[in-house]
Amino acid sequence: MADPIIRLSGIVKTYGEGPTAFQALKGIDLDIMPGDFIAVMGASGSGKSTTMNILGCLDVPTRGQYLFRGHRVEVLTRDQRALLRRKYFGFVFQGFNLLSRTSALENVELPLVYRGDPKAERHDAAMAALDKVGLKDWWDHTPAELSGGQQQRVAIARAIVTRPQVLLADEPTGNLDSERSVEIMQLLSDLNRNSGITVLMVTHEPDMAEFAHTLVHFKDGLVERIEANPKPLGLAGSDA
Amino acid sequence: MIGTTFFLALRSIRRHVLRSFLTVLGIVIGVAAVVTMVTLGNATTAAVQSQISALGTNILQIRPGQGFGRGGGGPRPPDFEMDDLEAIAQQIAGVTAVAPQAQTSGTAIYEGANWSTTVNGTTDAYFTVQPWPLAEGRTFTPAEEQAGKSVCIIGNTIRQNLYRGGGAVGTRFRIKGVSCDVIGVLSTRGQAGFGGDQDDIVIMPVKAVQRRFTGNQNVSVMLVGVDQNYANEQVQASITDLLRERRKITGGKDDDFNIFDTKQISETLTGTTTLLTRIVATVAAISLLVGGIGIMNIMLVSVTERTREIGIRLAIGAVAREVLLQFLVEAIVLSCLGGLAGLVIAQLAIAVLSPLMQVSWMFDAQINVIAFAISAIIGVVFGYFPARRAASLNPIDALRHE
Ligand SMILES: Nc1ncnc2c1ncn2[C@@H]1O[C@H](COP(=O)(O)OP(=O)(O)OP(=O)(O)O)[C@@H](O)[C@H]1O
Ligand SMILES: [Mg+2]
To answer: Is A115 within 8 Å of chain B by CB?
Structure first.
């Protein structure tokens, strides 16, 4: 069996200090295989987002070890983590987090700008990513001129434009109606299967979790249980 | 990386026109106000100084009486005599020339036009004591002075009003029943800072005025030119001693004449205008400060607003340094644009206001540089430091920022 792309061992995250300190993660152990599609579930406050942020190098654990492709992450500097994010990770947030007054194309291009890609390449890659999420014709619209579902698809395009190895999505459908949600899930499922991207997704909705291959349940800052989904949704849909 | 940063900074400025405009506005107003006010203040000082130097800076004016605000009551002290002039010219060291003034006023008439003016009886020394070139014609000959001939030199105001600006030399006008040959026209001096129109004057030989108008040998004012190598105060003291002796003022009695030093006046006036410039500069500095606070406000508000944006940029892979540099470039570009716009507006305002204030156009490089530098520094500091705080946050905290 292949090595895990991500290995968390004994990850603890404590917010605050002294008597008001709060332990949000109490020792997470988790292995993630490349190409997996994981749905993270659990009650509110169980530490799902905290875990996702640590996985995506947006935050650092208080204790424990995080191995990404066999390298220790928790010892890296801020800038090294930024470069790691730039190279390997794509993020999709519940609140979209697009730059306002900025066209879909420019939003999608931004990670490539920081990566230093030449203008023409940047443009082509961004258009290709928009095409993948079905928004090719909307490239010049600003977030204010797009629906929630469309904004989330722009955010996904931005997350995948750098061809990341891992796509992290924290409640990507949390602000969308069920029809739009299914579209987004179908998109993530396609990306996972066709582009081989490892997808981690937090969701509260069991219907959305049905698209994943693996379900990870959180409870009170710990991984409560991991189960495989024998018949993920989405596969049939896209094959047809 | 620099190219990327510039690209992103300019894009951000273009995209937030209102925010950028408001940031720039504070700088524009600050710079324009300071530069305009200080330049106009300096131009006014320069104008006053040049008017004063036209008056002649080394002249003592001696009049009978105790001067402004002193004495009063009692009989009017006697005028001076021609002998007093002689005595001063002969006995006091450092005196270049002494010119008398015997004055009268009357209405001048020429071919139906009339103009009421002042006649000033003096000698050629008048033109040595205070430089006042003629526009045309000549001054008195010694013979004319000696004989007290009825010849006159007129100021430009007389020429304008009596001759409607036309040729005056060689003509003859009447004043108080005396006809007078015009031999010269004075160059224009303009308004005095005090004491009205200096060009509204007719100058005649002192003997002519005494004989034909005042009917006595008196001189009401003496103008004493002082050699530059001598201190005015010292010459003034010697003249005081001499005149006290000649006018028989003894012991502790007060002088019955006063000596008015134009140098002292010019120093006082210059001091006043310099003070004025300082006040104006202070007001301007306050407006620069207010402008600066405006810039700080906008920058602080926009950074708070932009903390989420910083979070987004960090989350998608920007290094903190890149985000910071972008904000720095934005602040520099905006501040410099604002500063330049302020300088341009200031020059326009100065060009418009200078003629209205009757001062000559001036470009003061120093204040331009200072105002620009201060506002640029304010813009950069307040654009940069709040951004630095935001960029030092964990990306996730910046993203959560409300
Ligand atoms: N910045 C923070 N400071 C202090 N406590 C925090 C912070 N972020 C999260 N927490 C706490 O840590 C715990 C876990 O939060 P987390 O956001 O990971 O939960 P979650 O599982 O994502 O919940 P939800 O489903 O509501 O999004 C919560 O009790 C929360 O209050
Ligand atoms: Mg959460």
So the answer is: yes
